[in-house]
Write the structure tokens for this entry.
Amino acid sequence: MDPGYHLMELPTKVLIGEGVISKLGDFVRDSAGGGRVVVASGANVASKVRRAVESALYEEPIWVEVAAADLMNVDGVMGAAASTRCIIGVGGGKSVDVGKLAAFRLHIPFYSVPTSASHDGISSPFASLKGLDRPYSIMAKPPVGILADIDVIASAPRRLLASGCGDLVSKLTAVKDWELAHKVTGEYFGGYSASLALMSANTVLDRSRILGSFDKESVRELVEGLISTGVAAGIAGSSRPCSGSEHLFSHYLDVLAPEAGLHGEKCGIGTIMMAKLHGIDWRRVRSALKNVGAPVEASQIGVGDSKVIEALTKASTIRPDRYTILSKRKLTRRSASLLAKSTGVI
Ligand code: ZN
């Protein structure tokens, strides 16, 4: 039942631009004072930005290496952060998810310092972790602050940036699913947050060629788009504007083929097919993804035809409370195969 009200939680500040990592100490000072902070990051990322992070902070931080996005790593960060005043997650995905949930559980502020732009978790109130009782994101709190250094992010591998475009374009079908659910189940639909999320999807659809150059200007546009979709989720008070049937498909592939493809890559491929189910221009989605260098065929991410078909037929079962086009259309193996073939996914 829709209670008729909802809470909006949003990031308080965003610092974006070239070289802004040098301002990290001032950026977290509201929360940290001059005291020590915990920095959660992967080994790879730490080797690249460690010196810049340390020279920007007022005190040497406690580094906690995040090896995987799971509860064990959340416990590790919580243990290190128990007597500190905030947590900074520095990285592409895992460290931000782990740091976000650790801070949420400790009731202390979290700062997100993305080193790539591969998905919208950099600003959203959600954390995506393995080992939970469900294979999709859980609600935490949005980061208090996001510091996005365009120099750092622009030097991330292109594959990660293209994946970010896949996560952005997925808002197209996420919003369609949300509208559909509103009509069928009476669920709350927020027109404003839906428009905001759609604006980010349209950035990819309208400007894929420019965006796909991944020069500093387009990387900044991509990052602003991702931050903005996270904010859309904050305004909606749910992941609805950012995550629909295409995300269910992606989450099901996470279970079937855990090592194959990045989140945004799987969501992008899912969006092509869900767009066709919704009767909207799926060819435009496909060509935009191609233009930014994101995969459009399952084989490009090492997923076989039978797994695509299985994911299409079963994706809606992992989250029965979320009404999407897959709840309405209930694909059989045959119709799923036709859908995947007709869109060139398999
Ligand atoms: Zn996503």
